[in-house]
Amino acid sequence: MARRDYEDDPAAPKPNSLVPSASVVVVDGASPVGAAAAHPSSASAA
After folding, report:
1. d(CA 31, CA 38)
2. pTM (whole model) above 0.70
3. pLDDT of 1-34, one tens digit each?
4. Which of 26, 46, 45 minimizes the C-alpha distance to 36?
5. Which pLDDT score is estimated for 44?
6. pLDDT at residue 15, as a whole number
7. In 3-state terms, what secondary structure has residue 10?
8. Residues 6+ apart with CB under 8 A from 6
9. Of 22, 39, 21, nearest to 30 (Cα)?
10. Are 33 and 27 in contact, with CB atoms under 8 Å apart?
């Protein structure tokens, strides 16, 4: 069964569990998001 998210739905069923979560995007202004692989600080020490 697929998960279904309800947002501000008064007819939504009562939750059976609450799982906290968080997401973060950090940008330094010098490179666009997604270009971390080309950033010198992410280069491998090989």
Report:
1. 9
2. no
3. 677 788 888 998 888 888 888 888 777 777 666 6
4. 26
5. 53
6. 81
7. coil
8. 12, 13
9. 39
10. yes
Structure token digits, residue 46: 């090989």
Q: Are 38 and 31 in contact (CB under 8 A)?
A: yes
Copy the structure tokens of residue 42. 């992410």
- Please tell me the predicted confidence (pLDDT) of residue 38: 54
Rounded to whole angstroms, the Cα distance separating 15 from 6 reads 10
Token readout for 9 is: 């739905």
Query: Cα-atom radius of gyration of the chain, to the nearest Å?
Result: 19
Copy the structure tokens of residue 38. Answer: 């080309």
Length of the chain: 46
